[in-house]
Every structure is written in structure tokens, then in C-alpha cells.
Design a protein that fits this description.
This protein is α+β, with helices and mostly antiparallel strands. Helices cover 63% and strands 18% of the residues. It has helices spanning 6-11, 13-20, 40-67, 72-81, and strands at 2-5, 25-29, 32-37. It has a three-stranded mixed beta sheet. Strand 2 and strand 3 form a beta hairpin. The radius of gyration is 22 Å and the shape is elongated.
């Protein structure tokens, strides 16, 4: 991953965008990482990966809750008590 200063990114924005099509570009300001520019394709890949992980986690948690005796009716009751 290429790292550039915020000043460089500002002055060479088109070049940073072009570079981000090949690899992520990390932007630093005052010796701190502040952003990473990635291509739309890479962003979509990361986003879909996170969605799949969330779905997997919720399904796993649901199966565990069911194995512990949680039913839809009990869940509704618990949620109503916390309103």
C-alpha cells in the first residue's frame, strides 16, 4: 500500500485516484493515518464481505439462542419488558 501526505493527496488528487485503482492509498497528516482511498470495486468487495460476516454471525447467534430455549414468544416478551 502506498502512503502519501495529505498535502500530496490534495495537490495530486487525480494521481491518487489513479493509484487507488491498482492498490489502496493511505493518506497521512501530521504523522497520523487519516484515510485510505480504495477503488469502488475494492470497496464493494469489502462491503459484501462484511455483510456476509454479519449474516453468518446473526444466524449463528440465532441457532445458539434457539438451542438455549429462546423462542419467538419469549423474545417478544423480553423486548416488550425493555421498552
Amino acid at each position: 500500500m502506498q502512503t502519501v501526505s495529505a498535502t500530496y493527496a490534495k495537490q495530486n488528487f487525480a494521481a491518487v485516484l489513479d493509484q487507488s485503482q491498482r492498490e489502496p492509498v493511505q493518506i497521512r497528516r501530521h504523522e497520523r493515518d487519516i484515510a485510505v482511498v480504495v477503488s469502488s470495486e475494492e470497496y464493494e468487495r469489502i462491503h459484501q464481505l462484511r455483510v456476509r460476516e454479519l449474516i453468518r454471525f446473526t444466524e449463528e447467534t440465532g441457532h445458539y439462542a434457539e438451542s438455549q430455549g429462546l423462542t419467538d414468544e419469549l423474545l417478544e416478551q423480553l423486548l416488550a419488558e425493555n421498552e
